[in-house]
């Protein structure tokens, strides 16, 4: 070790000014490359030798200065820079790589992985162990073909670059996307190279099962083409162009509510998956820090109850240390990594356990080997798993030390923190503030009154005495241990105890504060418990006892002798009446010294800050991953400062490299934890994760979970029936003890082995035997380790282990029948009644509100500017107001359900409003299998099949499965409908043909046409084109078509209804938006009819298409362009640049092409001529010939009908005759009919008499049409030329089709023959030809039902407010077509929405335009007041999280729901309250309950609730229903979440992408990164929950609703709080009841005095409640700690502890041990409680220790 001369000390001190001892030691360690502990020894030696002097600075610990006479001046030589001199770091090891913007990188990666999987049978070189990659996976790894296919395991062949590039290019991926996959790199010349060659490829999958990353493995031996060569190689995500990121492996295997294992290697995880075991893997020994939060997210999202960490079982690696000593750590890297991960998870409240694989001899065994060897049976290993923080590799913690014989200490409790004694300030102990002056609180002396001054938080001075005090010296004076005029000097061990004792008695520190270890030594020696000569010295790093005469290199400290520690703790309790604040130690030794026997770099985590510092000082450059940090030239064991090259430790090197500090000699006080953490997590330094003791303690102390923490050495040896037959060196291998088992005859007497960790191994059965099973065997409960330990045997084994074998287990006495004790609490009913008015519904307030709502709707029904959503509350008469407004202005009321429509009709009858229900095509539903078969047949055989109706029926029935065909015959095509009491009959007009009145063949043809996308109107009006004949119902001589008659009634100008009632789909019909009336001159006038939509329509105006979507577009493209025969032709045709195609899609075909314009003109004039002739024939038939002759019109009309008469001539003759008619002549009105019906179309046909239309003017060869469009035009020309019947209809179809646009597409589809002709095809094709669609990536929603990783869609506007969403993976499309807002005359129509929880952004998307909301209440507070005051509604919130109850009900807390419902019924049922204000009070009955459908099914079958719940309902049947309005007591359990896919699907309609990654945010913190998505989330959760609650506020009676969800809108009258908390023993119930009784502030002692449990148990329960937010620690003043008070309102949320269903037999889903309590409940008096949020404490860098220089006196606890 380098000799430190006095000059060096002077330079250090000069540079560091007036440092604390820790700062000096750190400087020494940095400059001379010694460990921090060795540096402390050197500083202490310098103090002891008089070279340095301790000097009191007023702080808790002294500083040091150079002794007088020494030269303290000077500065370092240029060649002797202090640690880290130099400039600032400009390096950026991680870089500032810009995020890639390549949207299709994952698609390209997906395709590449699929390609690799197709290369499995590529032959490997002869020298390789296996012939193909498939052989390696199957024979070498033992994975079956199903696993190989499922995991997409693949192979990267040699020299495959060109082949894969071509494959990806053909799949539509460009160069940028390929580079973004990370599978390619770019050379300097711009050429691509393949990342892997000749390697096995193993992909990672995200939670949805989509490949997102990969790792490759070398063949054995390495493939000649493998230029990497290393065994495993991951994609280099650090490259700027790479877009993929490495996730946690195995995410796709996690299952809701099931445990998972974490294993070391990817092969281990795959084998686990093959055996049906959910497994995650970091693909190394432990998770990177950056992945840990993601790991927590996964565990939380799947409600994982327990995590088992199963690492490789391997021998620890040996090494030669710096002193040429052979070191052999007890545990290998795998176990240390497992403990690191487990400790982190435990900190975060996860039940994490270490499961060790058996390792015969010293061979390595990984999980892969074990599962193959043991046929996938992992149960024995998991049964022996121990909690991570109790594993022997997880070292006991120490907090604080001093370096030197007089100041060394060690805090040994595994569950305590450093004593608060050393955190006290002078202000804490004096009660005075900084700057305050006065007399000395320790005793006034002299005449002056202001001689005692508090100079700072740390120091006070008595100017008369000339003495200064810090907190510790002040305490010693106050305790009588020092004089007030001479308080200075360091504390000896005895004084440390006296200072702590006095602070404890005076409550400067909390009652549970731990006694400092030096204090233990002090009281032990002072009170004669230990002779000072018996104190031992231990190595500061290893903890081993150092002999007195031994020449020891490292630092040491004094410690109590073995066995004294627990005795001293008992002595403090008995002699001084103080709680020592430390746990007694168990097991061998019992000295409490906390000695260590390993290198601190070998432990995964520590609570001893010295261990962390020591590890940092011992890390060498060779320990790190890569070469990012360099060693010094002189000594490879030290790090070179990246700036100046000086020797520094790893923490300083990282601090400079990362730019945390500019120079290595800069102070690291606050930056040390960050640099330490980066060194550990990013640079791979073998540093332990530093945890405070508070971090290390599990968040909740679940008593039964400690079973797995108990090992063999926790058992009392005297109680064992098994005989110890060997110990220590007598035992070979790693075992430390052998036993002759009591439960069988053992020939060797040594068949049971005990290991250092306390694990017991039974060699005969080859099983690990956990402590509880060992007790059962040893005491005779079991006779074989393989027997199950369950039921009463389990309970008895637990009792014996605790009471007879001394196992440190908590008291547990489960009920004999396994039933749980439930002690739920809610705000007392009398408190609720006293605080809130229970006087019933107010009819007067309600009536006034209804009048205001009616006026509001009337105003909105006249506003044509933009739609208005009326958000008035339930019971305020929104529907009634709509109906009553129809008396003054015509309205259409459209609602999604029959019962709502029936209610509107009933209200119309009550208020004298003329209302009519709108027609529907059919009330019958064709059997799905029949209709699917018929549609499929038409698609494949062509739409002409609709003209051969019986062939459709035959094909449909031929395709039925046998079991389906047996149930129906060809005349029975409709589903049977069961009519119940709740069936609503509306007596709507329907089409007789669709109803089957004209036979099954006609009926199925009509329903097929409807499925093909044709509207009922098109089915009736375009029947000639669709079916080749009119519908029979339109030509039935006996009766008219009811459907058509119904619409005729709507349009009747002489008797138009006031109110039309229908469903959302009717909004598309123009006559629903139009009021028809008869003008005075007999003509028909049209005017806007306001449309009212009841409830949020959501996606009611969306149509979805499956995989045929692009086939529809291909059909249409083939009609507009020659040689488009399939999808590829369509995509390659570049239709977006075709002016004719774009013009046709926009409805402007005539402007886009002159030939089309000419054809439209010719065909149109011909059509008009035929129209004139048909009308002339009709007049000649209908009117008396003499009357026509008298008017001079007979001959001209006959000329029009004569096809041999030139049309131009006929027009002239008719025009002349009409002009000669005398208006006064009898029958002259007939001239008006002739003028409109004949003259007008004839004028168009002849171009006002300038020529006769010639069908030959249509040049078919010049038209840019093809396929069905060409056929239609040809048919029209032929029909006109041949003058055949029906020619006019064909001409009209051809003209409309040629014009294009939406109507052109619909008409073309109706007359087309292709089975894939679709009336909405123009929307899909419009999306495809859109040059710049909005591209959106999804993760949860996809058209493909088998997709697991979302999809990519293009979103485009394809018409008037129409939006088309097209899947780029060709699995479907969605078409959003909100209804037009114009009437039949083109006038704007008012649109009104009725939605109590309406949100404008969502309505705007649904309607395709901006909307406004309006209400009679201006603020949420006004709405809440109305609900409580007028509707007598009050809500109690009984949860702090939304509690999404969608999905599997077994993962929900249904036991908590049962407890809450029982409490509600017990507490509130029976209250007397009036239903309406002024009426007599009547008793409130049992509660009704609403929850999700799946949870309802579980709870409704729960016998415990048979006499508790009066009525059940579920969310899916909530909105708009009044069925539960009579119940005055209710519960709403959980909230809804439709799933991320629903949010993505809705937001895609607006062209918005949704971020579903969550990034650690769940529950109430969930954020989708989009305002629209977050609004939809509120719609799902808050709005639907509110709608459920409002079902009980329908105006007939009030209600009290308890909501077990936080998903509540701020306009609800939340008048109180309750909570459901899960705990583990009746102790918690006792403690909770007592602290609530105490109220105000209380201490642990206050509660402990009133309950029959120990203070330790009380402390644990209160800590649990504090973490949950029901109580909080408060500053008691004057240093008082551990004072609690009830929180103003619940804070952190509910406590869900792990299930231990396997502990005792119980029904599935019902843990017999959990108990539920509702604590900290209150009622708000008048208004909701104020926000009580407080600023949290400063954020600490978790996992890293504080800087030694930042902790003044850190080593001296």
From TrEMBL:
GO cellular component: cytoplasm
Single GO biological process annotation from the record: DNA replication, synthesis of primer
Domain DNA primase DNAG catalytic core N-terminal span(s) in chain numbering: 131-219
Basic and acidic residues bias (residue ranges): 393-417
Region (Disordered): 66-98, 390-417, 578-603, 1687-1757
SUPFAM superfamilies: DNA primase core, Winged helix' DNA-binding domain
Transmembrane annotation, as ranges: none
Coiled-coil intervals: none
A Pfam family that the UniProt record links to this protein: DNAG_N
Alphabetized CDD domains for the sequence: TOPRIM_primases
Protein name stated in the entry: DNA primase DNAG catalytic core N-terminal domain-containing protein
Lineage start: Archaea, Methanobacteriati, Methanobacteriota, Stenosarchaea group, Halobacteria
């Amino acid at each position: 070790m380098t000799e430190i001369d006095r000059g060096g000390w002077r330079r250090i001190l000069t540079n560091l000014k007036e440092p604390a001892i820790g700062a000096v030691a750190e400087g020494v360690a940095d400059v001379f490359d010694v460990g921090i502990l060795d540096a402390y020894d050197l500083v202490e030696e310098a103090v002891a030798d008089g070279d340095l002097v301790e000097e009191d600075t007023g702080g808790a610990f002294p500083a040091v200065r150079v002794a007088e006479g020494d030269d303290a001046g000077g500065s370092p030589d240029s060649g002797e820079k202090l640690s880290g001199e130099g400039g600032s770091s400009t390096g950026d090891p991680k870089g500032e790589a810009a995020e890639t913007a390549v949207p299709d990188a994952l698609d390209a990666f997906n395709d590449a992985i699929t390609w690799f999987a197709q290369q499995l049978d590529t032959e490997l070189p002869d020298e390789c162990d296996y012939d193909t990659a498939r052989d390696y996976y199957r024979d070498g790894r033992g994975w079956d073909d199903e696993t190989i296919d499922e995991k997409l395991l693949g192979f990267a062949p040699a020299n495959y670059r060109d082949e894969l590039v071509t494959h990806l290019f053909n799949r539509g991926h460009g160069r940028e996307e390929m580079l973004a996959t990370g599978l390619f790199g770019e050379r300097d010349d711009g050429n691509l190279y393949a990342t892997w060659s000749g390697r096995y490829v193993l992909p990672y999958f995200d939670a949805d099962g989509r490949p997102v990353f990969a790792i490759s493995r070398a063949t054995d031996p390495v493939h000649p083409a493998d230029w990497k060569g290393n065994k495993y190689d991951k994609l280099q995500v650090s490259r700027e162009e790479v877009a993929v990121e490495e996730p946690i492996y195995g995410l796709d295997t996690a299952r809701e509510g099931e445990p998972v294992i974490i294993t070391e290697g990817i092969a281990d995880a795959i084998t686990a998956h093959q055996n049906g075991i959910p497994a995650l893997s970091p693909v190394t020994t432990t998770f990177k820090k950056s992945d840990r939060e993601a790991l927590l997210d996964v565990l939380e999202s799947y409600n994982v109850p327990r995590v088992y960490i199963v690492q490789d079982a391997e021998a620890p690696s040996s090494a030669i240390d710096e002193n040429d000593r052979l070191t052999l750590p007890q545990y290998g890297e795998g176990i240390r990594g497992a403990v690191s991960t487990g400790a982190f998870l435990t900190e975060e409240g996860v039940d994490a356990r270490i499961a060790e694989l058996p390792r015969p001899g010293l061979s390595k065994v990984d999980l892969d080997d074990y599962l193959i060897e043991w046929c996938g049976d992992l149960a024995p290993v998991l049964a022996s798993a121990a909690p991570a923080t109790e594993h022997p590799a997880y070292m006991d913690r120490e907090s604080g030390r001093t370096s030197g014989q007089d100041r060394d200490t060690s805090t040994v409790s595994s569950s305590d923190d450093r004593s608060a004694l050393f955190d006290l300030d002078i202000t804490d102990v004096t009660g005075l503030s900084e700057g305050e002056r006065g007399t000395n609180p320790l005793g006034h002396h002299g005449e002056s009154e202001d001689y005692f001054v508090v100079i700072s938080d740390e120091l006070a001075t008595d100017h008369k005495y000339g003495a200064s005090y810090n907190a510790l010296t002040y305490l010693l004076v106050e305790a009588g241990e020092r004089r007030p005029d001479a308080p200075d000097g360091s504390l000896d061990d005895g004084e440390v105890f006296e200072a702590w004792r006095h602070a404890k008695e005076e409550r400067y520190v909390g009652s549970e504060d731990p006694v400092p270890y030096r204090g233990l030594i002090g009281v032990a020696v002072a009170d004669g418990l230990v002779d000072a000569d018996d104190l031992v010295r231990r190595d500061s790093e290893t903890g081993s006892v150092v002999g007195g005469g031994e020449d020891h290199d490292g630092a040491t400290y004094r410690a109590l002798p073995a066995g004294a520690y627990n005795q001293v703790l008992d002595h403090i309790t008995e002699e001084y009446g103080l709680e020592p604040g430390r746990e007694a130690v168990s097991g061998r030794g019992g000295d409490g010294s906390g000695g260590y026997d390993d290198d601190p770099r070998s432990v995964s985590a520590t609570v001893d800050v010295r261990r962390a510092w020591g590890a940092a000082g011992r890390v060498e450059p060779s320990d790190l991953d890569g070469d990012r940090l360099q060693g010094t030239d002189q000594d490879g064991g030290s790090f070179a400062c990246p700036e100046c090259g000086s020797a520094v430790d790893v923490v300083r090197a990282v601090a400079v490299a990362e730019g945390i500090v500019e120079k290595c000699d800069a102070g690291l006080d606050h930056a040390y934890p960050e640099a330490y953490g980066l060194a550990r997590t990013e640079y791979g330094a073998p540093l332990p994760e530093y945890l405070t003791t508070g971090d290390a303690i599990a968040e909740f102390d679940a008593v039964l979970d400690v079973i797995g923490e108990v090992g063999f050495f926790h058992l009392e040896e005297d109680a064992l029936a098994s005989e110890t037959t060997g110990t220590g060196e007598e035992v070979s291998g790693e075992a430390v003890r052998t036993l002759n088992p009591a439960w069988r005859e053992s020939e060797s007497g040594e068949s049971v082995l005990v290991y250092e960790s306390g694990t017991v191994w039974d060699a005969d059965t080859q099983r690990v035997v956990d402590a509880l099973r060992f007790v059962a065997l040893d005491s005779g409960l079991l006779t074989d380790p393989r027997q199950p330990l369950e039921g009463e045997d389990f309970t008895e084994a637990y009792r014996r282990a605790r009471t007879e074998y001394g196992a440190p287990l908590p008291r547990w006495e489960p009920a004999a029948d396994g039933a749980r004790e439930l002690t739920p609490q809610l705000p007392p009913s009398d408190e609720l009644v006293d605080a809130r008015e229970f006087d019933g519904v107010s009819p007067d307030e309600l009536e006034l509100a209804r009048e205001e709502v009616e006026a509001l709707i009337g105003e909105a029904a006249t506003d044509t500017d933009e739609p208005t959503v009326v958000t008035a509350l339930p019971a305020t008469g929104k529907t009634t107001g709509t109906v009553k407004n129809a008396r003054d202005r015509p309205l259409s009321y459209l609602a999604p359900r029959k019962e709502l429509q029936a209610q509107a009709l009933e209200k119309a009858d009550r208020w004298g409003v003329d209302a009519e229900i709108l027609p529907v095509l059919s009330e019958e539903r064709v059997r799905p299998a029949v209709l699917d078969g018929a549609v499929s047949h038409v698609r494949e055989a062509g739409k002409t099949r609709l003209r051969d109706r019986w062939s459709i029926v035959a094909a449909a029935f031929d395709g039925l499965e046998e079991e389906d065909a047996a149930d129906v015959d060809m005349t029975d095509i409709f589903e049977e409908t069961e009519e119940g009491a709740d069936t609503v009959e509306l007596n709507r007009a329907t089409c007789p043909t669709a109803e089957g009145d004209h036979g099954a063949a006609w009926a199925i043809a009509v329903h097929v046409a409807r499925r093909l996308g044709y509207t009922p109107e098109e089915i009736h009006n375009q029947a000639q084109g669709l079916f080749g004949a009119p519908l029979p119902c339109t030509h039935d001589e006996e009766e008219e078509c009811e459907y058509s008659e119904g619409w005729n009634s709507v349009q009747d100008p002489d008797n138009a209804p006031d109110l039309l009632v229908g469903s959302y789909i009717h909004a598309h019909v123009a006559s629903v938006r139009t009021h028809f009336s008869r003008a005075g001159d007999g003509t028909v006038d049209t005017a806007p009819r306001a449309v009212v939509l009841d409830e949020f329509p959501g996606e009611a105006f969306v149509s979805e298409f499956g995989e045929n979507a692009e086939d529809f577009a291909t059909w249409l493209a083939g009609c507009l362009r020659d040689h488009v025969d399939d999808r590829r032709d369509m995509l390659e045709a570049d239709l977006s640049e075709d002016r004719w195609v774009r013009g046709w899609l926009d409805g402007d075909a005539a402007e886009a092409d002159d030939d089309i314009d000419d054809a439209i003109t010719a065909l149109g004039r011909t059509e008009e001529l035929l129209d004139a002739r048909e009308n002339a024939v009709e007049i000649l038939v209908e009117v008396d010939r003499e009357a026509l002759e008298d008017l001079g019109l007979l001959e001209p009309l006959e000329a029009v009908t004569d096809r041999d008469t030139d049309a131009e001539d006929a027009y002239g003759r008719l025009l002349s005759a009409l002009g000669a008619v005398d208006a006064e002549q009898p029958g002259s009105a007939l001239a008006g009919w002739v003028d409109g019906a004949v003259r007008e179309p004839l004028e168009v046909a002849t171009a006002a008499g300038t020529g006769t239309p010639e069908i030959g003017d249509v040049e078919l060869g010049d038209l840019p049409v093809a396929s069905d469009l060409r056929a239609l035009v040809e048919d029209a020309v032929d029909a006109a030329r041949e003058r055949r019947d029906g020619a006019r209809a064909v001409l009209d179809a051809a003209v409309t089709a040629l014009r294009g646009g939406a109507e052109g597409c619909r008409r073309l589809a109706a007359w087309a023959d292709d089975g894939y002709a679709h009336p909405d095809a123009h929307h899909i094709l419009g999306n495809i030809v859109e040059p710049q669609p909005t591209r959106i990536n999804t993760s949860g929603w996809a058209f493909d039902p088998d997709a697991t990783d979302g999809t990519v869609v293009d979103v485009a506007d394809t018409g008037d407010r129409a939006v088309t969403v097209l899947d780029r993976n060709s699995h479907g499309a969605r078409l959003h077509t909100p209804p037009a807002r114009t009437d039949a005359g083109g006038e704007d129509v008012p649109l009104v929405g009725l939605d109590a929880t309406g949100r404008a952004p969502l309505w705007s998307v649904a309607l395709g335009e901006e909307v406004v909301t309006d209400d009679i209440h201006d603020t949420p507070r006004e709405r809440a007041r109305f609900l409580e005051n007028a509707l007598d509604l009050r809500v109690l919130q009984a949860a702090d999280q939304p509690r999404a109850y969608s999905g599997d009900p077994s993962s929900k807390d249904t036991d908590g729901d049962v407890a809450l419902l029982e409490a509600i019924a017990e507490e509130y049922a029976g209250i007397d309250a009036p239903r309406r204000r002024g009426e007599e009070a009547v008793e409130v009955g049992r509660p009704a309950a609403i929850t999700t459908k799946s949870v309802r099914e579980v709870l409704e079958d729960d016998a415990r609730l048979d006499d508790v719940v009066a009525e059940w309902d579920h969310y899916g049947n909530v909105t708009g229903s009044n069925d539960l309005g009579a119940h005055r007591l209710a519960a709403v359990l959980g909230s809804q979440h439709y799933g991320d896919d629903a949010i993505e699907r809705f937001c895609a309609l607006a062209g918005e992408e949704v971020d579903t990654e969550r990034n650690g945010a769940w529950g109430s913190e969930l954020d989708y990164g989009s305002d629209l998505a977050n609004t939809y989330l509120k719609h799902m959760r808050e709005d639907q929950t509110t709608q459920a609650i409002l079902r009980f506020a329908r105006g007939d009676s009030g209600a009290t609703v308890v909501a077990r969800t936080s998903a509540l809108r701020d306009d609800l009258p939340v008048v109180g709080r309750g909570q459901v908390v899960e705990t583990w023993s009746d102790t918690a119930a006792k403690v909770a009841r007592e602290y609530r009784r105490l109220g105000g502030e209380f201490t642990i002692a206050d509660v402990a005095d009133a309950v029959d449990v120990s203070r330790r148990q009380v402390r644990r329960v209160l800590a649990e409640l504090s973490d949950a937010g029901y109580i909080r620690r408060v500053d008691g003043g004057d240093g008082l700690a551990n004072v609690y008070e009830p929180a103003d309102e619940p804070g952190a949320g509910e406590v869900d502890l792990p299930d231990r269903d396997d502990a005792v037999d119980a029904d599935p889903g019902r843990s017999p041990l959990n108990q539920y309590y509702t604590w900290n409940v209150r009622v708000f008096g008048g208004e909701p409680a104020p926000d009580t949020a407080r600023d949290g404490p400063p954020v600490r860098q978790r996992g890293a220790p504080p800087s030694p220089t930042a902790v003044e006196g850190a080593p001296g606890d």
